[in-house]
Amino acid sequence: MTQAPNCLIIGAGPGMGTAIARRFAREGFRILLLDINDACIRLTERHLRDEGFQAVAYQVNAADLVGLQALLSQLQHKYGPVDVLVYNAVQYKIGNVTNIAAEPFMEAFRVDVVGALVAAQHMLPTMQARGQGTILLTGGSFADNPLADFASLSMGKAGIRLLAQLLDEELSATPIKVGTITICGWIVAGTRFDPHKIAECFWDVHTREKQHIEVFEVV
After folding, report:
1. 214 in Cβ contact with 178 (< 8 Å)
2. Residue 202: which of 112, 70, 77, 187 has the closest Cα?
3. Which residues span the membrane (predicted)?
4. What is the CATH code of the structural domain delimited by 6-218?
5. pLDDT category, 215, cuts 50, 70, 90?
6. Does 92 score more than 80 pLDDT?
7. d(Cα 161, Cα 132) in Å, to the nearest integer?
8. How would you classify residue 66: left for phi > 0, otherwise alpha for psi between -120 and 50, otherwise beta?
9. Are 134 and 179 a contacting pair, CB within 8 Å?
10. 95: left (phi over 0), alpha (psi -120 to 50) or beta
11. How many Cβ atoms from other residues are within 10 Å of residue 101's Cβ?
12. 56: burial class by Cβ within 10 Å (0-12, 13-18, 19+)?
């Protein structure tokens, strides 16, 4: 029996994370759900399984880089190689650059950017050995239009954009695809920023023929 491909979603909370999970599950992927909110991902796991999909949930704090690495190793050992890595984790910290404390900012940056770097580094050796794989990073318009009251998130989304560009440059001669989906608005069901519409963008980027970095803007 052929093993289902694996889609790993870090930041698989309600809304967009769940919508991405369901979109890839419909295509036959086993979904590995990772999030800091254990109750939320357990609920998503149950809903996906009730719908006949393969899904497993694990709690993790993306700011805990050692714990994140340990869990990623455990998942690869148990479920096999990851075919699609989706990094959707984010931490909202209200505050501007003149008053945000250093430690909360560093924690947010670990979640927003460094966790994505660690996850990509962890998955890339297996992807490269197999000659296939997709890395999808959730971006935001704060990268282009920062807001003073969301200083850490603005710098985080700028960091995600830069990380995607650097990964793409390094991996340009390989089959590994790197994409970033930039969401230029607040995610609200029933609007043009409906999470299910955005999830369709993630699937579209994954299934495109590889070119230069795939930047998909949801505007």
Report:
1. yes
2. 187
3. none
4. 3.40.50.720
5. low
6. no
7. 22
8. alpha
9. yes
10. left
11. 10
12. middle
